[in-house]
Amino acid sequence: MAITPVKELVMRAKEEIETLSRDEVWRLAEAGEALVVDIRDPRELEREGRFPGAMHAPRGMLEFWFDPASPYHKEAFATDKKIILFCAGAWRSALAAKALKDMGGENIAEMDGGFGAWKKDGRPVE
């Protein structure tokens, strides 16, 4: 039985979701118009640093935290702001953004290049 490679799943997801430039993500975050959500593993945050002001939502809990009917729901996700997800390299965030969109989420996007590209650009890191 052949499986669909993850790279293909990511490419398909990227065709269905909105990807924002790092400049646009920063502009929206600074203007208070976005909830920026870091879905990386906690060990990655400790090792690499954090996007200033981003909410951390572990990838394994994202859908549960997003769903208002879930006992794990986080109020931060009950927002009219654009929800912008990122991971290290914009693969997990693409799949996650598609999952939230498939759940009926609106105004969902991912950050181009992920935190790796953010850091490589020399942008602010906490």
UniProtKB/TrEMBL annotation:
Organism, scientific name: Lentibacter algarum
Domain spans labelled Rhodanese: 30-126
Pfam families tied to this protein: Rhodanese
Top-level taxonomy: Bacteria, Pseudomonadati, Pseudomonadota, Alphaproteobacteria, Rhodobacterales
Protein name stated in the entry: Rhodanese-related sulfurtransferase
InterPro entries linked to this entry: Rhodanese-like_dom (IPR001763), Rhodanese-like_dom_sf (IPR036873)
GO MF entries: thiosulfate-cyanide sulfurtransferase activity
Cited SMART domains: RHOD (SM00450)
Keyword vocabulary terms for this entry: Transferase
